[in-house]
Amino acid sequence: MRHWMAAVVLALLPSWGQAEPIEARAAPCLGCHGEHGQSEINDTPSLGGQQAPYVLIQLFMFREKLRVFEPMNEMAKALSDDDLRVLSDFIASLPKPLPPPDAGDPARLRRAEALARQFHCQSCHNADFSGRDNVPRVADQREDYLLKSLREYKDNSRHGYDGSMAEALQPVSAEEIADLAYYLARLR
Amino acid sequence: MTITTSPRPLLLAGALSSLFVFGVVFGAAAQQPAAPLPPGSPLAGRPDSEAAAKLSPVAPPPLAAALDKLPTAKLKLPEGFSIEVYAAGMANARSLALGDKGTVFVGSRLVDKVYAIIDQDGKRTVKVVASGLYRPNGVAFRDGTLYIAELSKISKIENIEDHLDDPPKPVVIYDNLPKDEAHGWKFIGIGPDNKLYVPVGQPGNNVLHDDAHGQIRRINLDGSGAEVVALGVRNSVGFDWNPQTKQMYFTDNGRDWMSEDVPEDELNRLTKVGEDFGAPYCYQGNISDPEFGWGRSCSEFTPPVGLMGPHTASLGLRFYTGTLFPDSFRNAIIVARHGSWNRTHKAGGDVVVVKLRDDGTVQSIEPLITGFLQDNKYIGRPVDVLQMPDGAMLVSDDWNGAVYRISYNKPKLASE
After folding, report:
1. B327: closest CA of chain A, how far (Å)
2. Using alpha carbons only, how large is chain A's radius of gyration in Å?
3. How far apart (Å, rounded) are the C-alpha atoms in residues B167 and A185?
């Protein structure tokens, strides 16, 4: 009798719920962002090895529409606070992205490396650009996504969680942003 | 007479080759010459040491902490004082304002909401009264109207306490404000002159700026009549008026990347319209800025009436005028110090009571609530304080999204 009742209750549970393992729940995310932490889709970031607190903040901002990008606002809108925590921990566990086969033009890389030092990027993003707490990993991120993000932080069309990136990019020129994105995407 | 020219080319070649050698030696280190840092950069002046490389601005969690995760048990207060949770669940709870009917309004800086805490016979509930706003850190209340300051505009909601369940949208009254993110969030307050005071921060850590920044303005409550009342203000996130002298006292956050120990945050007193407090030429009243102070003198500016500690992030403050706390608190100032990011061993992260001499300058600064820092890590960060009609003090904590209530019961003597 009890088994029968339990079966009915279980059948009535929504299919997208706590019972599902995180890998299954994250499958729709990885459809765009890549199965193994590496994104193959234009303007769509790799998520592998990303700092969990940073992911949580971005998912929160998408949910609350503090950061506006319609596909992600849609994906995030039904996430509970617990979902944010579980998802961000899972994403942090994905393998970090790899650099592209093209090692890049050495002169341009040297120029960009000097720019990163000049603008003190590593002060927050860490010596190897792997990030720390609320500061994201940017090493080996997709170049097109880095370009998009840096440009949007600079013209404030993307609001950061706090004002740090807006301040950091105040003096950085469009050309320097392009060089930095080129360099960070190819770190080896 | 023959002029021999051969030594010169040799000398030149020698000079060039030594330059070449130098170039190789230093080139190997691949150091970009120390170009001036981005104006506005929080890293302006950052030295290249390893310890400095570990310091970056600390961001609080965006989710309010659950009730059972609040740090009240670890917080310490002087004998006779006690602390309890007044309300929780308000992500990034920041500045506080009190309505005529006892509603407590709470702003936020990293989320988009203004909250209201409603107390019904000792039971508190939290509502969101405005959302979709851009860093609505500033809140003030006068004659039934709530004023909200976002990054670059000030709005109002009239009769808000009669419409807490279905509040009308805020109506903009003033938006002639710069749009810089750096020090752009605002604390507001309404003075005894019935004008609304609003700071405009310096648009970067240490930077020269135009005459629309680095100041405190006041406006009429309908948004008209804007005028600048104070200059040389780097970033003030808290002020109140001395109940005896009616003068405005405001905290001002000192610059970063000068050193771990100086400059200290300032407590300033405004004695006349147009007074200049020195930033970015002079900090803490007696330190000429190493970058901008050349050709200037600290004697040109008004020094602080007290120093609030280096990198303590002194923010919200109120003069205590109640009778619940000991008599020594009367007309003292209670100040929330948010705590450091630009200092290896964090300072502040506490609430202090500042007692004044008869001349209005600072006599002493004593701890009122400590314990928000444990092992140099935050378990909470105080932002603003507010006196309640019964003389208790509220304290907001943007790390946990909570507001605490501090009360006092005179300890019994052993003989009683």
Report:
1. 40
2. 19
3. 48
